[in-house]
Amino acid sequence: MIIQRTRGRGVDIVLNSLTEEKLQASIRCLAKGGRFLEIGKFDMFSNNPLEIFAFSRGISFHGVSLDKLFSAEPEGKEVLWNKITEGLKNGAIKPLCRKVFEKDEIEAAFRHMAAGKHIGKV
């Protein structure tokens, strides 16, 4: 669908946390010279293979270990914090859609999720 919507071009960047065949499908969505940022760990720790042919389109693949931020030097954390704050202020970063249920609404929350029509975090 992404290839169709982009008229065969694909996208420049994929921020991925999907696994196995969905990871492979995400790679196929990249445009020539696109960048793939993998934030999931399952495929990396399972040593799952990549379809190497994708690299013939000049793409790059980057494993991003977000957990490394917790042990980063204070200067690095400050730079990242400033970039995130700036991105939120100028609208480049938008918070995820979310639906919050109260603790006495557990049944309603499960029904909402079971319907499978939600977008974002529940």
TrEMBL record:
Q: Which InterPro entries match?
A: ER, NAD(P)-bd_dom_sf, Polyketide_Synthase
Translocase among the record's keywords?
no
> What is a single molecular function from GO for this protein?
transferase activity
Arranged from A to Z, the UniProt key words for this protein are: Transferase
The chain positions of domain Enoyl reductase (ER) read 1-122
Organism superkingdom: Eukaryota
Respond yes or no to whether keyword NADP is given for this record: no
Entry's PANTHER family? POLYKETIDE SYNTHASE 37, POLYKETIDE SYNTHASE 44-RELATED
Protein name (Swiss-Prot/TrEMBL): Fatty acid synthase
